[in-house]
Write a structure and sequence with these properties.
By secondary structure, this protein is mainly alpha-helical. 75% of the residues lie in helices and 1% in strands.
C-alpha cells in the first residue's frame, strides 16, 4: 500500500504540470507562449523518438523527416477526400510506421555510419518523389507538389495546441514504459554490443525494428499535427534536413540516453528557433556550429553535466524515492 501511495505522489507533479499547460489557452495566455509551447511539444515528441533510436538502440537514423513529411501528406490527402482530420492523424502515423517497416528491410542490412547515410538518402528520395508526384489531382500551390490542408480552419489554436501537448505526453510515457521493459533492456544491450547481444540470445533485428516502428509512428503523428497547424505542406520543407538538425541538436544538447535530456534540449532549440529567425539564411549553420561546440565541451549534454553537481543528484534522489 505504501508503494502505491509513493508512486501516486511521484506522478502528482508531472500531472499538475500537464494540467497547468493544458489550461493555458483557456486562461488567455499570450499567443507567443502558445506558439512557443506548441513547437516545444512537437519537437519534444520527435526528440524523444530520436533518443530512443540513437541513445538507447544505437541507430543513428536520419530519416525522421521522411516520417513527418509522409504523415503530413497523408493527412492532407485524407482531408481532401472529405474524411475526418482527427482520424487522419492516426492514419498518417500508421502510414509512417508501414513505411518504416518497408525501408527497414534494406537499411537494417547496414550499420554505423552506413546506416546513417542510408536513412539520410531515404529522406532525400522522398523529397524528390513528392516534387515529381502529385498525390492530389488538379492545380498545385507554390513550388513542387504543395497543397493546402482542407478544413484546417475548423481547428482553433487551442485545439491544435492540445493535440501537440497530447503527442508530447504520449512520447514521454512511451519512453518511460519502453525503458522499464524487457524491450528497453534488450535495446541497451544491443547499443553496447550487438554481436554479444545476439550471441546471448537477443533477437537484435526484431528489437531494433520495434524501436524503429515506435519512433516512426509517434514522429509521424507529431508531423501530422504540425501540418494541421501550418495548414500547408510542400516537399522542400516537409522532408527538409532542418527537422533532423533540430531533433539531433535537442537530444545531444540536453543529454543523449537520458529521459530528461530531450526536454531541456528541446526548450533551448525552440528558443534558438525564435532567436535565429532573423538569420534564416545561416540559422542551420549556426545550429551546426553549436552542436559541434556542445559535443566538444559537454559530450554528455547538459543533463550529463548537471548529474555531476550535488543539487541535481539530491533532486534526482528525492523524486526517485517518491517513485
Amino acid at each position: 500500500m505504501k508503494d502505491i501511495i509513493n508512486r501516486l505522489r511521484g506522478g502528482l507533479i508531472p500531472l499538475v504540470i500537464i494540467v497547468v499547460l493544458a489550461l493555458l489557452p483557456i486562461i488567455g495566455a499570450p499567443p507567443f507562449w502558445i506558439l512557443f509551447l506548441f513547437l516545444f511539444f512537437i519537437y519534444l515528441a520527435m526528440a524523444n523518438m530520436w533518443n530512443l533510436l540513437c541513445g538507447y538502440s544505437g541507430l543513428i537514423s536520419l530519416c525522421q523527416p521522411a516520417f513527418a513529411g509522409l504523415a503530413g501528406y497523408t493527412i492532407v490527402v485524407w482531408a481532401w477526400q472529405g474524411l475526418p482530420i482527427h482520424l487522419g492523424i492516426l492514419i498518417g502515423a500508421i502510414v509512417a510506421a508501414i513505411f518504416a517497416l518497408l525501408i527497414s528491410i534494406p537499411v537494417f542490412r547496414l550499420s554505423g555510419i552506413y546506416f546513417a547515410i542510408g536513412t539520410m538518402i531515404v529522406a532525400e528520395a522522398m523529397r524528390y518523389l513528392f516534387l515529381l508526384w502529385r498525390p492530389i489531382p488538379g492545380s498545385i500551390h507554390g513550388g513542387g507538389a504543395g497543397y493546402i490542408l482542407k478544413k484546417a480552419n475548423t481547428f482553433s489554436t487551442a485545439h491544435v495546441y492540445w493535440l501537440a501537448l497530447g503527442i508530447a505526453v504520449v512520447s514521454c510515457l512511451c519512453m518511460r514504459i519502453v525503458l522499464r521493459s524487457k524491450l528497453g533492456l534488450g535495446l541497451a544491450a544491443i547499443r553496447d554490443n550487438d554481436r554479444a547481444s545476439a550471441s546471448s540470445g537477443i533477437h537484435v533485428f526484431k528489437l531494433k525494428l520495434y524501436s524503429f516502428l515506435i519512433s516512426a509512428f509517434i514522429t509521424g503523428a507529431a508531423g501530422a499535427i504540425f501540418y494541421i497547424y501550418q495548414s500547408y505542406i510542400e516537399p522542400n520543407s516537409a522532408f527538409s534536413s532542418k527537422w533532423t538538425m533540430s531533433i539531433i541538436l535537442a537530444t545531444v544538447m540536453g543529454g543523449m540516453s537520458t529521459e530528461e535530456g530531450p526536454i531541456i534540449g528541446t526548450a533551448i532549440v525552440v528558443f534558438l528557433h525564435f532567436t535565429l529567425a532573423k538569420y534564416a539564411g545561416i540559422s542551420l549553420l549556426i545550429q551546426g556550429l553549436l552542436l559541434i561546440i556542445i559535443m566538444l565541451l559537454v559530450p554528455h549534454g547538459i543533463v550529463g553535466f548537471l548529474r555531476k553537481t550535488r543539487p541535481y543528484r539530491f533532486m534526482l534522489q528525492f523524486f526517485t524515492a517518491r517513485q
